[in-house]
Design goal:
The structure holds 2 protein chains of 2 kinds. Chain A has a single domain, classed as MetI-like (MetI-like fold), CATH 1.10.3720.10. The two termini of chain A are 44 Å apart. In chain A, helix 3 crosses helix 9. Chain A is 75% helix and 1% strand. Chain A is mostly helical. The model of chain A has no long low-confidence stretch (mean pLDDT 91). The longest helix of chain A has 34 residues. In chain A, strands 1-2 form a two-stranded antiparallel sheet. The radius of gyration of chain B is 18 Å and the shape is globular. Chain B has a single domain, classed as P-loop containing nucleotide triphosphate hydrolases (Rossmann fold, 3-Layer(aba) Sandwich), CATH 3.40.50. In chain B, the strands form 2 sheets. Chain B has a 6-stranded mixed β-sheet, sandwiched between helices. Chain B has a 4-stranded antiparallel β-sheet with strand order 2-1-4-5, covered by helices on one side. Helices cover 36% and strands 25% of the residues of chain B. Chains A and B meet through helix 7 and helix 8 of A and helix 2, helix 3 and helix 6 of B.
């Protein structure tokens, strides 16, 4: 009797364990099945590098280069803002801050991670968008820059917590060794601690970027959603994610447009997957 | 004149009285061993000399520690300059996760001596020769230091220290992670280095103290019980507690 019970429990746990992989496989298969259909009418090259996205004109033009550019531009902007601030914050928490401030900061960072993206988008729309408009004298503040700034807030918690963890796990003996040679605290951080934690910090950055590139709601609310090739960071752009979210409701099921949106999904999936695998590689390297 | 003098040195970790009124003199070009059972304060004493204890929160010190006649416990003491002069080798070899070359030029770089490539190469060669590693490593200068054996790492740490050109070498159980042969070689190295430096070694290995040191101090429960010529400490100690320790009655 005890054996049967044991057997059933083990099997149940096994099913739970395998379920996640099973669902990922199902999702990917579904994406492929729906998305690949678009290539019956558009070549993969024209799809990826076409400069015009007019999905409902006759004939439809399905080039997603403007969307890819929009995503990359917003992500790049967010990375440029969030990496130095995030890593700096991690260094401060791990190395410099007194215990009390450290606790407060860590709680604050967690709180930042807990803000729903729609709320961030809303706040950005009310405060940041007019600010960007006025500072740069633009016709509209709904720009890639606004999206980048808001997304930087979303990437920061990931970057800070993982980078702080990486710094924290650098052996204390490295720091002692540097100080014993007459290094200042900053020299010990810059020349020894940061290089020693570099793979963990790179993983932190990759995961932060992964979060940004998959983000939808906030960018849709504040980047202006113009599917044109951006020529600066101060123009409205539309990201891959926002395109799917905005158009899925109006695309006719089974139409070319519908399939194209799934194909965009495949591309997003591949990008996220690549970023996560890279982050994983860095993390593994760190453990060695 | 002694290189280092401590006068009525006391140290507390919070409420714990770890060093109690230590008076001692450390001579130039001699190896002084500090022995005693675990927790007697010997590492703490060593870490006073380069103020490494300052990294621990809640440390308080009183008394005087004179190095070249300057009191290093003075609140205005320049810790960076002190640690340049008083270098330390740790219990576990702790080379940085950089190349062999970068480990050795680390001190040169942080002290902004602005040496050029040739000068740096020269320093690397000289330092590695001083610790008898040059022949083994001259073709592997760009290899990561963490690939080396434990003994090589410890020698590298000594080389890295020598490159800073200190006066005093503090060694905190430098052989405890090494096997007997490697230990013998590091001890040999210490004997060679003593002509240029003041060396203070903390060890729980009495034979090692007897083999390498000129002077020995015996510590117990934060007190320096006895301090003098190694020969005398090991053959005719004055204090009963020293005798009990070196004959292995406790510790």
């Amino acid at each position: 009797m005890r054996k049967i019970k044991e057997f059933v429990i083990v099997k149940l746990i096994q099913v739970c364990g395998l379920a996640s992989i099973f669902f990922v496989a199902l999702i990917f298969l579904f994406l492929l099945k729906e998305g690949l259909s678009v290539f019956k009418t558009v070549s993969p090259f024209d799809f990826s590098f076409g400069k015009n996205w007019y999905p409902i004109s006759e004939p439809a033009q399905l080039g997603i280069l403007p969307l890819i550019s929009g995503s990359l531009l917003v992500t790049l902007g967010a990375a440029v803002i969030s990496i130095p601030i995030g890593v700096g914050c991690a260094v401060y928490i791990a190395e410099i801050a007194p215990l009390k401030i450290k606790e407060i900061l860590k709680a604050g960072i967690e709180l930042l991670a807990a803000i729903p993206s729609v709320v961030l988008g809303f706040i950005g729309m009310i405060t940041l968008v007019p600010l960007v408009k006025n500072i740069f004298h633009l016709p509209t503040g709904l720009t890639a820059l606004s999206g980048s700034i808001m997304l930087a807030f979303m990437a920061m918690p990931t970057i800070v917590s993982i980078a702080e963890d990486a710094l924290y796990s650098v052996p204390k003996t490295y720091k002692e060794g540097a100080l014993a040679l007459g290094a200042t605290h900053w020299q010990a951080i810059w020349r020894v601690m940061l290089p020693a934690a570099s793979s963990g910090i790179l993983a932190a950055v990759m995961l932060g970027i992964g979060r940004v590139i998959g983000e939808t709601m906030a960018v849709m609310m504040i980047t202006g959603n113009a599917a044109v090739m951006p020529n600066s960071i101060l123009v409205p752009v539309r990201t891959l994610t926002a395109t799917i979210a905005a158009e899925m409701g109006e695309a006719v099921v089974g139409s070319e447009h519908y399939f194209a949106l799934f194909a965009i999904g495949i591309i997003l999936f591949i990008i996220s997957f690549a970023i996560n695998v890279t982050a994983d590689l860095f993390l593994q390297k760190r453990q060695q | 004149m002694p290189k280092i003098t401590t006068k009525n040195l006391n140290l507390w970790y919070g409420g714990f009285h770890a060093l109690k009124g230590v008076n001692s003199d450390f001579e130039v070009n001699k190896i002084t061993a500090i022995i005693g059972p675990s927790g007697c304060g010997k590492s703490t004493l060593l870490r006073v000399f380069n103020r490494m204890n300052d990294l621990i929160e809640g440390v308080r010190m009183s008394g005087e520690v004179l190095i070249d006649d300057a009191n290093i416990l003075d609140s205005r003491a320049d810790l960076v300059a002190l640690r340049k002069k008083v270098g330390m080798v740790f219990q576990r070899p702790n080379p940085f996760p950089l190349s062999v070359y970068e480990n050795i030029v680390f001190g040169e770089k942080i002290h902004g001596r602005g040496s050029s490539g040739d000068k740096l190469d020269e320093i690397v060669e000289k330092s590695l020769k001083d610790v008898l590693l040059w022949d083994e490593l001259k073709d592997r200068l760009n290899h990561p230091a963490l690939m080396l054996s434990l003994e090589q790492r410890q020698r590298l740490c000594i080389a890295r220290l020598i490159a800073v050109r200190p006066d005093v070498l503090l060694m905190d159980e430098p052989c405890s992670a090494l096997d007997p042969q490697a230990t013998a070689r590091v001890e040999e190295l210490m004997r060679e280095l003593k002509n240029k430096y003041t060396i203070i070694i903390v060890t729980h290995n009495m034979q090692q103290a007897a083999r390498v040191s000129d002077d020995t101090g015996f510590m117990l429960l934060g007190e320096l019980i006895e301090f003098g010529k190694t020969d005398i400490i090991f053959t005719a100690p004055e204090d009963k507690r020293t005798e009990d320790y070196i004959t292995g009655r406790y510790g």
